[in-house]
Amino acid sequence: MARLPADGAGAVCPGPTASSAVEILDAKTREKLCFLDKVEPQATIAEIKTLFTKTHPQWYPARQSLRLDPKGKSLKDEDVLQKLPVGTTATLFFRDLGAQISWVTVFLTEYAGPLFIYLLFYFRVPFIYGHKYDFTSSRHTVVHLACLCHSFHYVKRLLETLFVHRFSHGTMPLRNIFKNCTYYWGFAAWMAYYINHPLYTPPTYGSQQVKLALTIFVICQLGNFSIHMALRDLRPAGSKTRKIPYPTKNPFTWLFLLVSCPNYTYEVGSWIGFAIMTQCVPVALFSLVGFTQMTIWAKGKHRSYLREFRDYPPLRMPIIPFLL
Ligand SMILES: NC(=O)c1ccc[n+]([C@@H]2O[C@H](COP(=O)([O-])OP(=O)(O)OC[C@H]3O[C@@H](n4cnc5c(N)ncnc54)[C@H](OP(=O)(O)O)[C@@H]3O)[C@@H](O)[C@H]2O)c1
């Protein structure tokens, strides 16, 4: 049964019968938001979030971050109360993560945008390049090839989002979608504007340069896909298991011998290939920004692997073999 807190502060939340108590304080103001009496010691953080939602329905579980320290890391949903370093009354600090949106929706929006935007420039729809160019087509083969590669890349990502990735987090803060879409959509428009421009000039070394670039692009796309499949196979459907990824029989996965996030290595490689193919400054900049972002993430993931697995292969670097 739930009981009123001694000082009467905060709402009293209905808890299950058993022995521990949990108080939830606002991480910023330290105001008592909720007191859960007699919580099962085996209760998970996910269950505590559900109980908290009963008195604060505006904070549905995906919006909640519960921590042991107001400025510390969020506890995982699967963490169990009795395994946490707390006394008989556990104090948890709550932070509102803001409105949430599902990862799948996020990815679909982020990736469908560039696909569609690029095609507007490729088909030279009115009001982009001037009336006389409306719905005209470039005379350069590389422009058509670039459109094929760009579209292939985003169709692949959409399909992977729907059918390959097994995400551990169901949602992401809604505000991130504005930031991410500005990045993906903005760069797609900028790159497409120049590549499909009627005055675009093909790369300096002609078809040799294009063939080399296409080879890099195709290899990296196959590599990226192979790594995504290998990561998928690490996690049984419906679980959140994280394991050390190892090379499989597929040679594209052998990069796991040297880096923790070869999917990022291949992703950067694809964009370098695309930059060489189109010889276009916005593409080079997109590759550089993407590389910077993915390096930051790869370093974070690499650190977590080292923290989580004592037997983590020592030769691996985050993203670039032997270097970075
Ligand atoms: N161009 C760009 O700027 C850019 C930037 C970022 C990403 N991308 C592309 O988008 C792709 C996906 O990005 P991402 O950041 O989501 O990649 P990621 O973190 O490597 O994750 C890919 C998938 O594998 C799962 N996973 C990762 N490590 C795992 C492990 N040790 N055990 C089990 N499952 C694991 C992830 O689940 P979790 O949900 O648990 O993480 C996720 O479902 C990248 O590979 C890249 O091609 C492009």
Automatic annotation (TrEMBL):
What InterPro entries does the database record attribute to this sequence? 3-oxo-5_a-steroid_4-DH_C (IPR001104), SRD5A/TECR (IPR039357), TECR-like_N (IPR049127), Ubiquitin-like_domsf (IPR029071)
Pathway given for this chain reads: Lipid metabolism; fatty acid biosynthesis
The family database entries (SUPFAM superfamilies) matched by this protein are listed as: Ubiquitin-like (SSF54236)
Q: Which residues form the TECR-like N-terminal domain?
A: 21-96
TM stretches of this protein:
101-123, 182-200, 272-297
Keyword tags: Endoplasmic reticulum, Fatty acid biosynthesis, Fatty acid metabolism, Lipid biosynthesis, Lipid metabolism, Membrane, NADP, Oxidoreductase, Transmembrane, Transmembrane helix
Q: Where in the cell is it found?
A: Endoplasmic reticulum membrane
Recorded hits in Pfam families, A to Z, give:
Steroid_dh, TECR_N
Locate the 3-oxo-5-alpha-steroid 4-dehydrogenase C-terminal domain: which residues?
A: 171-324
What topology does it adopt in the membrane?
Multi-pass membrane protein
Its Enzyme Commission number(s) read 1.3.1.93
Q: Major place of localization?
A: endoplasmic reticulum
Xref: PANTHER family: 3-OXO-5-ALPHA-STEROID 4-DEHYDROGENASE, VERY-LONG-CHAIN ENOYL-COA REDUCTASE
Q: Which family does it belong to?
A: Belongs to the steroid 5-alpha reductase family.
Question: In its UniProt entry, what is this protein called?
Answer: very-long-chain enoyl-CoA reductase
What organism is the protein native to? Mesocricetus auratus (Golden hamster)
